[in-house]
């Protein structure tokens, strides 16, 4: 057991305890066995999530989707957010063109370029018809590395006296499919917006590289999960740095 694994496990334990304090009371989340037991229970319950969001994707461009995801999360009602967090911000990604569906389904938010649209978060039964109509988004290709891009998020929101900040958004690509990225990045961004880590007018410098930087004090928020075939071997898949200040 390495120190880095201990730090990653502590961060996963914090997230679980925040969303589901009763699991923290039942399992020792700071041990590998206790955390695995809690995660197995969470995974088993995920298919029966009471509250979930649905994202319909026409196509996927990471910087554009990150901007739209933050905009969607900022519009989630506070009471709905509490229930959604208990189901670990579960989101289902479906393949479809939102423009072809707008006459049949009401979306809570549609990306400016029409590439994505969201329903919920709401009780799962409210999206049954949509989920039966569309297939899951096909994201089997491995996520590529790309030059960095700057994304300004929530530019249309009231800053409420908070000065916009600049952060780096690191996304790991090695062994990560587009589908994996959607899940990991969705959890990171929506929870960062709900927790006000990301706010109106912030700039995110998106960096896609095989692995994330290893400095443990660098990040304000991380998305951590097990590795394929080794759920007890944790890895950081995407992360937001602390504020970046000009030298």
Strand content range: 25-35%
**Number of separate strands:** 9
Helix content: 25-40%
Radius of gyration: 18 Å
Largest sheet: 5 strands, mixed
Structure notes:
The protein contains 8 helices and 9 strands. With 247 residues, it is an alpha+beta fold. The model has no long low-confidence stretch (mean pLDDT 90). It has a 5-stranded mixed sheet, with helices on both faces. Helix 4 runs parallel beside helix 8 (178-194). Strand 8 (219-227) and strand 9 form a beta hairpin.
Label this structure with key terms.
4-stranded mixed β-sheet, alpha+beta, 247 residues, globular
Describe the secondary-structure layout.
Blueprint: H1 3-19, H2 21-26, H3 32-46, E1 51-57, H4 62-74, H5 78-86, E2 91-95, H6 98-101, E3 109-110, E4 116-123, H7 128-133, E5 146-152, E6 166-172, H8 178-194, E7 203-209, E8 219-227, E9 230-241
Parallel strand pairs: 1-2, 6-7
Antiparallel strand pairs: 1-4, 3-4, 5-7, 6-9, 8-9
Helix pairs in contact: 4-8
